[in-house]
Amino acid sequence: DSRFKELDKSDVEHFRSILGESSSAIIDGVTQEASNEDLEGYNADWMRKYRGHARLVLKPESTEQVSKILKYCNDNMIAVNPQGGNTGLVGGSVPVFDEVVINLARMSKIRSFDDVSGIFVADAGVILESADSYLAERGYIFPLDLGAKGSCQLGGNVATNAGGLRLLRYGSLHGNILGLEAVLPDGTILDDLSKLRKNNTGYDLKQLFIGGEGTIGIVTALSILCPQRSPAVNVAYFGLQSYEKAQEAFREAKKQLSEILSAFEMMDGQSQNLYARASGAKLPLEEEYPFYCLIETSGSNTDHDSEKLNTFLEHVMGEEIVSDGVVAQDETQVQSLWACREGVSEASQHWGGVYKYDLSIPLPQLYDLVAEARTRFEESGLMSKEDEGKAVLDVVGYGHMGDSNLHLNVACRRYDKAVEKVLEPWVYEWVAERHGSISAEHGLGLAKKEFIGYSRSETMVKLMKQIKNFYDPKGIMNPYKYI
Ligand code: FAD
Ligand code: 2HG
Ligand code: ZN
């Protein structure tokens, strides 16, 4: 974009003066020969679907460095792309052209933890799994968990307002985050690192950064309220004959497990078959079923929780809501049952390409979309019934049923416009007609830029643009993305 300055030697020298000479602070393909290989991990996204052409990656170590970098970029019209663990699934985490990548990986300090209130304060570059392990040692849990926990960063989680596997229990980051520190495009440091649960003094500005996808500033630290870790955790995995049965099971789980229910996930048979083929793992149940659910309970009393879970399982099996099931007997089994759910996302891109949709749909209609998508592929001639399960094209549905959040993944051998045409804009129209959301948790990024109107009115999009222009009048923050 000719509005933005092309990087030259003087810019790189300036960034070096901010960051110092440490080789881990800067990957320079402008004045030095950083190879494409060095830059690849920052330019290509997790799905290998979006690829930018950044020639400079900056890795600040402190909020002050982020501030100096942004001020210089703003003064000189240099476009930037904030980046965390680069596990985002909508193309928002990588540049489109040659934006400067500002990667937060080196900002990885835990700043404080109060083991009475459970308030945890950390830099944005802390890896989610590291934060959770730190809290586990102190009897607490990070109130967010997701399959990419080993790579994603807290700042990226905030910027995408990640939902994950336990939102049902702990709620959204909009509620758990107590304070943020962020740097605005002109270098201003917004210190709102509050540790208060209650603070009704005007607009709650931090909420704009939660789910802001790096379009109005860079999150550099957060404070978050963490709950006690439950000593008794049980996981059950069961097979069901229909989606209606899965809904009945969910209703019973809420009724009978009530306060100890911490996750309710749904996977269709095709998604489990795909996971087994891609990973080589054996599925937990002997027979195959059209649907599977995974339930997790977390409580403080093992005997009490096991009794509740067993009563629930006896009931749902007695009533023939559930056809067969297994309860994990130890931590290894807990992990392997969870892997059947968490592993689907990665398995779906095993054969080369994948089209991912992350949707909020009213629960009774949630699975209709998957069934209709299969029909559309059969009618298009791109998939026949015999192809199913042979990795030519797999249409799989799974997700956070407890949050009415479906993940529709269409796995194929390579990215193909013909496949995309069957899906878009049909998926978005379908969801809009049912008053759902075209992004339940992954955000809009580049992938859904054109489609925001399916979930937000013109008035709301206009207001969003005004907010963006107010915070980032020169438009340097993550340009070309959804706003
Ligand atoms: P990145 O991918 O690096 O960035 C994501 C966006 O945030 C980009 O727009 C980027 O510009 C911006 N950003 C990053 N850091 C900052 C910062 N410090 N300040 C401002 N902006 C910033 N998501 C869910 O909601 N639920 C799930 O269950 C879930 N499971 C996943 C499982 C797998 C296997 C994978 C690969 C992804 C999954 N995701 C899930 C997607 C999810 O968005 C990310 O995993 C995570 O929240 C992104 O964090 P990240 O550090 O990788 O951010
Ligand atoms: C999950 O719940 C993630 O596993 C990823 O949100 C979903 O890959 C996907 O579509
Ligand atoms: Zn998800």
Automatic annotation (TrEMBL):
Q: Which domain of life is it from?
A: Eukaryota
EC number(s) on record?
1.1.99.40
The enzyme's main class, written as a single word, is oxidoreductase
Keyword list (alphabetical) reads:
Oxidoreductase
Name under which the protein is recorded: D-lactate ferricytochrome c oxidoreductase
Native source organism of the sequence: Vermiconidia calcicola
According to the entry, what is the taxonomic lineage of the organism?
A: Eukaryota, Fungi, Dikarya, Ascomycota, Pezizomycotina
Which residues of the entire protein appear here: the answer is 90 to 572 of 572
